[in-house]
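ok so for the tutorial part 2 we go from a plain amino acid sequence to predicted structure tokens. step 1 is just haveing the sequence, like this:
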Amino acid sequence: MFVGSADTQSPRRETMSKKREPCPFCGAVDSDLERVDTGGPFGREWRVYCFDCGATGPVIKSQSGALGMWNERAAAEGDDD
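step 2 — the prediction. this is what the tokens look like for a chain of 81 residues:
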């Protein structure tokens, strides 16, 4: 289930204040936040999902946390040092 607003906005158009980095695995920019029902203590949690290769970020209890972890992974994978 992807996040969408109550109006007619597309889920992909709904953005947070942070920019989503390209996928660390395939380089695609076609990704979005996804709600995940983990059955855990936080109920529904969040991760970023790549529409091109199916990669996912870690499941985190907040949208900003999931986005931050995705961006950190994308930056780390892009470093060639």
